Amino acid sequence: MKILKREDVAQVHENYREIFDAEKHHDHVIIEDSQGVYRWKENSTVRTIIDKGILNEIIILFHALGYDKNSEIYRKMYRDMGYSLSGYWEIFYWGMNNDAASEYKKLNLN
Fold first, then answer.
1. What is the pTM of this model?
2. Residue 39: beta bridge partners?
3. Whether pLDDT at 104 is above 90
4. Average pLDDT for 21-38
5. Do 78 and 43 meet the contact criterion of CB atoms below 8 Å apart?
6. In this structure, what DSSP letter does residue 71 have?
7. In degrees rounded to 5, what are phi and psi of residue 38?
């Protein structure tokens, strides 16, 4: 595992720059894994919970509480899972998966 600087990763792909431009409000660590994939550094506690196979239940709970893909808590969970940056972009920034992607506001806690 190699820790990376956002500035360096932002130069790799325009999608990563889009993430970093929108998400300047947190300093979640970015790593390069053993296969060369850029990821958010996982939180081992979150990873353990997700590995129990309850991700869908957590997402259903988030929706029941009024959280969606533009909510910070939803995005933070994916960062804490150690999600790849490319997968994160597809989930949160690609219009095919998040038709309201342009509505994301920094520090949106609702």
1. 0.90
2. 31, 84
3. no
4. 95
5. no
6. S
7. -85, 130
